[in-house]
Design a protein that fits this description.
Layout lengths: L1 H18 L3 H18 L4 H24 L11 E11 L3 E8 L7 E5 L9 E10 L12 H7 L2 E13 L4 H15 L5 H9 L7 H9 L10 H19 L3 H6 L2 H19 L4 H18 L6 H15 L7 H25 L3 H19 L1 H8 L6 H25 L3 H21 L13 H16 L3 H27 L4 E5 L8 E4 L5 E4 L11 H12 L4 E2 L1 E4 L4 H13 L1 E2 L2 E3 L8 H8 L4 E3 L5 E4 L2 E7 L14 E6 L2 E5 L5 H9 L8 E3 L11 H7 L3 E4 L11 H9 L4 E3 H4 L2 E5 L4 E5 L3
Parallel strand pairs: 3-5, 8-10, 9-11, 10-12, 12-13, 17-18, 18-19, 19-20
Antiparallel strand pairs: 1-2, 1-4, 2-3, 4-5, 6-7, 6-21, 7-8, 14-15, 15-16, 16-17, 21-22
Helix pairs in contact: 1-3, 1-12, 2-3, 5-6, 8-10, 8-11, 8-16, 10-11, 11-12, 12-13, 13-14, 14-16, 16-17, 18-19, 20-21, 21-22
Amino acid sequence: MFVASISAFIAGIYLGAVQNYTIAYVVISLCILLFLLPFFFRYDLDRLSVIALLIAFFLTGILRVSLAVPEESPVPDIITNTYSGTVVESSRATKVIKLDSPVALNGTRAIIRSEQHAGIGDNIIAAGTLKELTSNFKNPGRISWKWIKRREGTFYEIGGDIISIHQAPGILERIRRYCAEKIDASGAAHTGVIKALTIGDTTGLNDTTKDLFLQTGTSHILSISGSHFAVITGIVFFIVTFLLRFNLRSRQKGTDRQYAALITIPFAIAFMFISGSSLPTVRATITIVVYMLAIIFDRSRHIENGLFLSALAILTIYPFSLFSPSFQLTFICVLFIILVSKACGQRLARLPGFLRWLLSMILITITTTAGTLPVVLYHFYGFNPLSAIHNLISIPLLCIIATPLSLVGIIAPFGDYILGLSGSIIGFTIAILDKINWGYIYPVIRPSLSEAIVYLIAAVSLLYFKRKIVRFAFFALILPVVFVTTGIACHSRFNNKDLCISYIDVGLGDAMLVEAPHGVRLLIDGGGFYGSNFDIGRSVIGPFLLAKKVVTLDYVINTHPHQDHLAGLQHVLQYFNVRNFAAGMGGPGPGNIQNILSIRKIPLSLMQTGDGLRIGDVDIQVFHSYFSPDRNINDSSLVLRIRYGDMSFLLTGDIGEDIERSLIMRGADVRSSVLKIPHHGSRFSSTAEFIRAVRPQVGILSVGPGVKGIPSNEAVARFKAYNVPVYRTDRHGCIRVCTDGKKLTIHTESR
């Protein structure tokens, strides 16, 4: 009952956050339920009390979220200025600061992007432009990090640089700096990994190391996460237990394990502060403290209740932790460790010591890998089925040996040699992982929330229910549901008779997924940013496709080789199954695209004016394809019309008024139901003559927030003058337009 109540609380937090339920909603719902429940269960008071308790926890979850969301404050008049404040969250590339000046912003929180090192508690001064923090890339199946930050009360972003950093005078920060300086001065190899393992400082990790650990399924080791924290505190607990066995007095007042747990709690809290007090570390500390208290009060036999109690404590303090991958992975890992220990503990206890330990490690690693699979796929879109082997190697070497050695090396007077030994062990581990870096599968379709929940319920039931008849009955109910939903999904894809185009929110750029009848998929452009290392293909386009369960694309088309249309296609071409690639007469331009096409043997075709493509009842025509090195590349954009039944879509790339006029003079039949507005609404396109010629029912504007002059007021006004409703990706998020050939339906993803 306790577990069910906490589950109801978690469900309330999720729905309260996603659906934006208010306190008034909770009060009204509670009043209605209190009035109705006695009528339904007047003769069954036990069932009434159970249902009432679950509903109370559910509504409490909604209430907690509504109380956690602060009131939004408007963007102040002060825009460009010098700002100062205290760092309250810190990562390698992003800092969240609580502002104390200007006075008008005192107490508010803002994000600044900088790779300068600034720890929690440090005071920084920054110069730049203040703007409202808006959710970016609002696409289906994606919860924006900025959306979560706004829910936590961070409403601003400072676009600028950090001028100065004044380190916090507190003793904990001095200890952290001392540890970092001693590690750097030791001359040990892999100091970046040592700092990540001991004090939670990941700024020294290079991309090669991070990619290796990601691909082998061991990236959790490089952060002070729940599993890492559990290993460190577990070592302390067992060492203290071993030492207390020689103290006879301890046996008179309590068990060795109870005294060891009592000593481990302050160590866990101290380690939390030294490792930076990041949110994952705080969550792990709460879990460890609850577990140790269960040992102290002799409640360890019901440790699953302790796990859910720690979840209740964490989510009560930090309700938006529910959306954090680290919280989800830690919680599920610990749950499956508990379940497999209870299911197999008695059998393993009969084995000799080393064999028992080895089999326990293998079972736990395999079980947690399988248990966390839907969460890993949901957030990271890939997994390594051999990660159990990689973890069996890396966890003992890095967590059980290298991390304690590093901690001793920091404390010991002549610790440089110990740190050097730790660095050698880390280097040895990395070399092994590099040699056996096999099996990483990417991309993998992303499970929906309901699919992930069904998977987890089935996996938990397999371990939790001891009676075979109960397991059989459960799977007899679950498996038909799985097969039926899978069949419905396959039927809806390959027998779908609608044409749908999704205008993906990629900021200032273009990317469109065309879903034709009978399962044919086309991706037209892939977004991107000028002068940025941000991989929009990996971070936005890939996740969008996988959330829609697309791993195969029949056609990928690039309208013209500008970064805001082309950059995201590189990732898609490299990792997805692409059958054909097409571009305008200028081709995809210089760069890696040509190499990828050659290596992956993807056919390249150059589309010319007048070309056509027939996909069942869908007709695609090329109205414009031209290239000259002397002309603006925007004017070489492919202009495509996609027709299905009585409805048509005009895709215009970044053409300007000259090409618009040329299309009209040539007599091209540009009249279309939906117009992708040219060049993101630039004032040099979308002329009145062109709008009259197209006569669209709807205009789609793919644009990012905060870009001066894009879209132009003049262009927007022209569409308004012709009574054409305009949907914008910066306001509406992903815009999905579907047609059965006779009418249009429009869905937007706005959060």
